[in-house]
Recover the amino acids of this structure.
């Protein structure tokens, strides 16, 4: 449904599990108070989120228009959930900088692969903030050789060059 003919009533930021939207609480009451048919929303959300693994939490925005139509925009997976999945954790440790021998180790290459899209969008400083988040969350020890922003920028440039075609730019049609 598109809300092109009606004006925007409200935009809701929700966190819903991929392919698992259900009519019950908390989703039903939140959308119901704005007049959205919950079954239609659940069907559409589950279709839109089928590219993500089932049950993966997704940040999403639901734009609700005055004529009761809605538009769903999926913003992606929260950073903390990606880190937990990469490390095989169900939750982070309760204490800051708590270290134990059973804690998994995440390397900078794993983080670079995991957050490649975000690094391209926000720049190499994003990876530094993720490393800080992990260090301060406890429960994950980073095996990260100190990489400078120049090293990260060089990796990004190398990746972009690999994506470009190798030819001179002239196509031959026969």
């Amino acid at each position: 449904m598109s809300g092109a003919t009606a004006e925007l009533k409200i935009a809701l930021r929700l966190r819903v599990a991929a392919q698992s939207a259900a009519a019950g609480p908390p989703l039903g009451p939140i959308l119901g108070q704005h007049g959205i048919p919950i079954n239609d929303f659940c069907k559409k959300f589950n279709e839109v989120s089928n590219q993500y693994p089932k049950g993966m939490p997704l940040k999403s925005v639901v734009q609700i228009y005055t004529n009761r139509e809605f538009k769903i925009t999926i913003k992606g997976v929260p950073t903390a959930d990606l880190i937990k999945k990469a490390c095989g954790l169900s939750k982070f440790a309760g204490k800051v900088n708590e270290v134990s021998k059973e804690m998994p180790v995440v390397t900078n290459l794993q983080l670079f692969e995991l957050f490649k899209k975000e690094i391209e969008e926000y720049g190499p400083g994003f990876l530094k903030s993720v490393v800080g988040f992990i260090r301060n969350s406890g429960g994950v020890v980073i095996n990260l050789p100190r990489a400078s922003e120049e090293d990260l920028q060089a990796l990004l440039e190398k990746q972009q060059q690999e994506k470009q075609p190798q030819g001179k730019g002239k196509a031959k049609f026969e």
Remarks:
- The beta strands are 8-17, 57-65, 70-76, 105-107, 141-143.
